[in-house]
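Hi V.,

Quick status before I head out on leave. The structure for the redesign project is tokenized and pasted below; the design run finished overnight.
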């Protein structure tokens, strides 16, 4: 199987890049942030908006979370309900980052993603894909952009989805998540030595996809796999 791993901070455009690459390579794109968001949704729906470690440990066994693909679209199924459309709210964004620091959550996550990668040609994006989940991925990318550019993208995405927020809220939220995601003890967001770093602050999605596609094809050619 060919696995392409992409990491980067929130709003760096990992999702759009992974979608674009998945289309060009005809691979599946697995968005791993959605798994944490799914757990956050389940925890919130169990009545905990700011859960402790013990509360998470208590609730987790009752959350049966699965990733499914329907007509190429990723769905998060929680206890047989499709919860995908509820996962982008700011409250879920915040809580997913908070709960992602706990080992019990990360173990479940690791199981789901490694199992998926072992039987699919795929592009997987997240925070620790290049470092922990797929340390032997065929290609590793670290995608970044300035804080302001990322906050503006997230703000516009929210508006287009009728999610009410201000730019300042989104920027503050983003800074808080960046800090937590890169300073946590387990599997923090970081650039590994064999990843290619791409800053797309000044690039369109198409330019980013084309640039990364060419880099990957070149490397796979050299490996004799493409
Ligand atoms: O990519 P995203 O914004 O949908 O991710 C939501 C949160 O999930 C993010 O703040 C941190 C966590 N996450 C993680 O810890 N590891 C991953 N591989 C993906 C996401």
């Amino acid at each position: 199987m060919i696995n392409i791993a992409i990491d980067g901070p929130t709003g760096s455009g990992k999702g759009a890049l992974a979608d674009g690459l998945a289309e060009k390579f005809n691979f599946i794109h697995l968005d791993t942030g959605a798994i944490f968001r799914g757990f956050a949704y389940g925890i919130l729906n169990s009545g905990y908006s700011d859960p402790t470690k013990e509360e998470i440990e208590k609730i987790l066994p009752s959350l049966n979370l699965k990733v499914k693909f329907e007509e190429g679209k990723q769905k998060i199924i929680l206890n047989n309900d499709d919860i995908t459309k509820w996962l982008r709210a700011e409250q879920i964004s915040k809580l997913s980052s908070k709960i992602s620091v706990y080992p019990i959550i990360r173990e479940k996550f690791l199981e789901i993603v490694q199992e998926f990668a072992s039987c699919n040609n795929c592009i997987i994006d997240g925070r620790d894909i290049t470092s922990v989940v797929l340390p032997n991925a065929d290609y590793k990318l670290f995608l970044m952009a300035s804080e302001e550019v990322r906050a503006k993208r997230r703000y516009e995405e929210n508006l287009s989805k009728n999610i009410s927020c201000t730019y300042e809220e989104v920027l503050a939220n983003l800074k808080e998540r960046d800090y937590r995601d890169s300073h946590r003890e387990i599997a923090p967001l970081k650039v590994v030595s064999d990843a290619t770093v791409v800053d797309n602050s000044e690039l369109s999605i198409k330019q980013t996809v084309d640039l990364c596609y060419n880099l990957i094809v070149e490397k796979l050619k050299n490996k004799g796999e493409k």
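Above is the designed sequence. The first strand starts at residue 3 and ends at 7.

G. will cover questions while I'm gone.

Best,
W.
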